[in-house]
Amino acid sequence: MDYLLIFLPGNPSVPEIYDDFLFEIVDGHKNIEVKTLNHLGQSRETVSLKRKIDLSDVISHHKKNIREILEKNKNHKIVLVGHSLGCTIGIEIYKEFQLRIEKVIMICPFLGPSLNNDKFLKAFERKVSRNAIFALMAGVLINKRVGSLFFRIWLGKNKKNAHILKNVRKQNFIANFVSLLSSYRKEFSSLDIESKIDLLEKKKTHFIFAKEDFWVPAEVEKKLSLKFNCEVIDGISHDFCLSSEETKKIATRVKRYLEI
Question: Do residues 175 and 47 touch, judged by C-beta distance below 8 A?
């Protein structure tokens, strides 16, 4: 049986930072192909968009791409893997594609604003503070030397720093990232994500959580664990893909669950 693993990343979507994670999953399995889908406005094809991008735009864009992918891969079983915002997108698209989806894995699922992060998201929602944040980010990251220093201080010496900097320096990438983030509070209030979570099938679905996560409060895990297979892993963070050790921990759990 041939499998196609469709990976939906967090926001921002920088595909290279997930390469090690995805390689760990498929290593040794010749029957698994991987397709990573970048968010609208954050890929080579769409990064030059200048209009405001919100979450509904991103979801619609992914649905269109997945329809095309499934049409070209009619004989493949689909494994849907999401991280952070990618989990919300995966849940949103599940109903349309559920007959083709064999397994669903959600990692550190960001399913909407919470008390943890609401003040942070409000800052992006307000025009004055949003523009100030954008100006600061652009000033730091557009300059290659300053950006490299920033990431070295933030993440230490990490081979993924260069990938992140290369992507965020693309035309309009930062503006599109900020635009998407600023839409969260309004868009999530209208998504009705809880009713769509109920459409997921328990036997197909597995959730993985970090023990302490700014973006995913503990209440989310407690609620989902009443219906789904959920696992809380010590020693990982929301941005697990930036750490080799954390990447291996998550990849090991994903491979165990897939049993392909």
Answer: no
Hey, what amino acid is at 84? S
12 cis-preceded (ω within 30 degrees of 0): yes
3-state SS assignment for residue 193 = helix
**Rounded to whole angstroms, how far apart are CA atoms 247 and 239?**
9
Secondary structure class of 243 (helix, strand, coil): coil
pLDDT at 137: 78
Cβ neighbours, 10 Å, residue 64: 11
Report the distance separating Cα 184 and Cα 171, nearest Å. 22
What's the CATH class of domain 3-116+192-258?
alpha beta
3-state SS assignment for residue 78: strand
List the beta strands (DSSP E) in the chain: 3-8, 32-36, 77-83, 101-107, 205-210, 229-233
Q: Please, what sign has the CA dihedral across residues 176, 36, 87, 213?
A: negative
Which pLDDT tens digit goes with each residue over 55-103? Answer: 999 999 999 999 999 999 988 989 999 999 999 999 999 999 999 999 9
Tell me the one-letter amino acid at 45: E
Per DSSP, what are the bridge partners of residue 35?
A: 6
Residue 190's contacts (CB-CB under 8 Å, 6 or more residues apart) are none
- Cβ pair 56, 187 in contact under 8 A: yes
b/e map 204-242, b = 16+ CB within 10 Å: bbbbbbbeebebbbeebbeebeeebebebbeebebbbbb
